[in-house]
Amino acid sequence: MQDPFVCTPVSHHHCISSALDKAETLCRSRNVRLTPIRHRVLELIWQQHRPVGAYDLLEQLQQQGRVAPPTVYRALDFLQQQGLIHRLESLNAFVGCAHPQHPHQGQFLICKSCRSLVEITDPEISTVINNRAEAVGFKPLNQTVEVSGFCAGCWQKEQTNG
Amino acid sequence: MQDPFVCTPVSHHHCISSALDKAETLCRSRNVRLTPIRHRVLELIWQQHRPVGAYDLLEQLQQQGRVAPPTVYRALDFLQQQGLIHRLESLNAFVGCAHPQHPHQGQFLICKSCRSLVEITDPEISTVINNRAEAVGFKPLNQTVEVSGFCAGCWQKEQTNG
DNA sequence: TGTGTAATGTTATAATATAACATCAAAATA
DNA sequence: TATTTTGATGTTATATTATAACATTACACA
């Protein structure tokens, strides 16, 4: 089932802190360290609540002192390993994961117009892909599924405008 | 159904020339120009018959004279637009398309070990993805599906070795 | 032959990412 | 508590991927 969570400007502060709380709990339980830098990077990612590039993050971090690229990339690596963020290959960007509690194959719907993103976690998609891969003798380990198109709102506008 | 074409070292020269012939026919019928540079880039891509980076191609082109990055990227853009090659987002690399006659959503199986690649074109995969996207109000236009794992051969080796 | 368009050349630089090594902080252990 | 070990971060430099901007050339067609 899909988490019907919707983030509105009003609820956004909650969505950020909820994500950070989850992250803290998770890291504690796994006995890994959500250091200040990692925490900060995750926070920045959730503040945007859309795909963010590493150098965007870098720029924001640099407002509080000198930071170099490796620092950001290390934090991103860590957050990815812990399943707290996903990397979007088609955008070279990162986004917070809404349900990091258990590892999963996410699928990403990326709006061409407003650049918003929805993550769905549909077992049927991953199953079909795995089945087809196995049918040709391939052992699937990890899936990248990214769909470019229009979100509901932008699609309406597209249609009325043209 | 999947094209059961298999490229072996022995048949590889044929697979290259077949791809180039198809490309020529296609471009002629579409009234677009498969110029020498574009032809050469496509040839180099098929010679490798695995994902190749733009700068790999550049290096090979430079063996016959000075060439700069934009030249390669323009050729790649053209070939992509014509559906003659695909871009692999998770690798920043390009690979020849085995059936460029009609536009399609390809799915890519990428071997972590030997870096070989298989393209499958499974309508069920694209359909399921589109359905699920539409179910959440999203209008899907383009899919990126890339699966990382082991090809049949390498998976066997993996299992016997460890 | 001119004239417009598409393709390519050329230079510079943007954007993304990592290697390599130094330093520092925390946790684990004696 | 001092020691050691490990993991995290700092720092510098550079690799890799990609594009902007403008000049020049080749081709298609009037």
Beta content of chain A = 15-25%
CATH architecture grouping of the largest domain in chain A: Orthogonal Bundle
Number of helices of chain A: 6
Rg of chain A (CA only): 17 Å
Folded structure, characterized:
The structure is a homodimer of 162-residue chains. By secondary structure, chain A is an alpha+beta fold. Chain A folds into 2 domains: 98 residues, Arc Repressor Mutant, subunit A, CATH 1.10.10.10; 59 residues, Ferric-uptake regulator, C-terminal dimerisarion domain (Dna Ligase, domain 1), CATH 3.30.1490. Chain A has 6 helices and 5 strands, in the order H-H-H-H-E-E-E-E-H-E-H. A 3-stranded mixed beta sheet of chain A has the order 4-3-5. In chain A, strands 1-2 form a two-stranded antiparallel sheet. In chain A, strand 3 and strand 4 form a beta hairpin. Chain A is globular and about 45 Å long. The mean pLDDT of chain A is 92. Chains A and B meet through strand 3, helix 5, strand 5 and helix 6 of A and strand 3, helix 5, strand 5 and helix 6 of B. The first copy, chain A, binds a DNA duplex (30 and 30 nucleotides) through helix 4.
